[in-house]
Structures are given as C-alpha cells and as structure tokens.
Specification:
The chain has nine helices and four strands. By secondary structure, the protein is α+β, with helices and mostly antiparallel strands. A four-stranded mixed β-sheet has the order 1-2-4-3, covered by helices on one side. The longest helix is centred in the middle third of the chain and has 19 residues. Helix 3 runs antiparallel to helix 4, helix 4 packs across helix 5 and helix 5 crosses helix 6.
Length: about 200
C-alpha cells in the first residue's frame, strides 16, 4: 500500500574516515557501502581510462571540469603512482583546478565532493540498483498504492522523474508529483545535509 525509499547514504558511514566517503579526514579510498563486496575506489581507479573516468564524472555528478580532472588522475596513475587515500585524491583534483581562472576554494571543494560522489555511485552500482527498483516498483504496489522517493542528487532525481513519467503515460500511475518537493530553509538550517534532498511521489492506478 505504501513504499518509502530514502536513497541517501548513512551519515554515520560518511563521517567514518575508515570508509573513505569524505576527505575531511584522511582515510583509505574505499567508498564501498559494503566493504566485503566488490572492489574499492582505489582499485577502480588503477585500471580506468581517461574517457571512462570523464564519462563517469559527467554522468554521475554533472562535473563541469570532468575532462581536466580525469586527465590529471589518469596521468598520475600512469606515472606509477597509486591513489590509496582520500587526501591523495582530493589533492590531485584540487591541483588540477587551482590554476583555472575564477576558480575559488569553494568551487574546488564542490568539485571534490562531486568526484567522490561519482566514484561512490560507480563502485556501488547505485544507478543500476535504483533502475531495477523503479522497474519492479509497479508490480509491488497495490491499486491506489503510493510511493515516495527521497533522492539527494540530480542523477538519482532524473531517474525517478523519468520512471514516474514513463509509467504515468502507460496508465500504470494515475498521478505523480508535478515537481520535486524541496526542504524549507528552516529544515536546511537545522540539518544542512537536507539541502540537496528532493522528494517525488506517485500513486498507482
């Protein structure tokens, strides 16, 4: 009758330097939601091509300087350097952007955040998991069943929006949210991580 999906990563995981989700503190460049499964971000970067990395940064994080950043990372690896820690990756990204005109410290910080996000999505196959969930969702909902999905970046929100519109056109959803619902300023002040949140809902026919 009702499905609520929160696509956010646990704050406890993000704040744990051993997990490698953030560059606030140095830690191993892991980024896996399940450390016992798959390969780490450090391992992923060792065999990646520049085109592949550039595409990842664009698709997973809408990074405007994906070409410059991907070139710098791959060049470093090709010279025999291994990127094992979060600070090492942050420094490479920061150095590659620092000479660009009008590039401020805050712009560089946001670029680093986008790159870490893109890597995390790739390592954990997050888009594939979300796509499978959205495809199977109509079969799981009862008639008049409702779903609400909370996403935290544009790539996730695009997938949710596209899926809802697709199934609405097919008559499977009888109503969907016309726009994404955003948190109010007071909520963002109380919880800064809510700033990027978008909520969309749908009702099954």
């Amino acid at each position: 009758d009702f499905v609520m999906a929160d696509l956010g990563v646990s704050s406890m995981q993000i704040d744990n330097p051993e997990r490698g989700f953030s560059f606030k503190s140095d830690g191993p460049l892991d980024l896996r939601l399940n450390p016992g499964k798959g390969i780490s971000a450090a391992e992923r970067l060792q065999s990646i091509t520049q085109n592949e990395l550039q595409g990842m940064l664009i698709e997973n994080a809408d990074e405007p300087n994906a070409d410059i950043i991907s070139r710098a990372i791959v060049s470093k690896i090709r010279k025999g350097n291994k990127i094992k820690t979060t600070k090492q990756l942050q420094e490479i990204i920061s150095d590659s952007l620092s000479s660009l005109p009008d590039m401020k410290k805050d712009d560089i910080k946001k670029a680093c955040q986008r790159c870490f996000q893109a890597l995390r999505i790739d390592v954990n196959h997050e888009y594939e998991a979300l796509f499978n969930f959205l495809e199977k969702l109509p079969e799981s909902l009862a008639s008049d069943g409702r779903v609400a999905i909370l996403s935290f970046h544009s790539g996730e929100d695009r997938l949710v929006k596209k899926s809802f519109k697709h199934f609405e056109k097919q008559g499977i959803y009888k109503e969907i949210s016309p726009n994404a619902i955003r948190p109010a300023a007071e909520e963002c002040n109380a919880n800064p991580r809510a700033r990027s949140a978008k909520l969309r809902w749908a009702i099954k026919a």
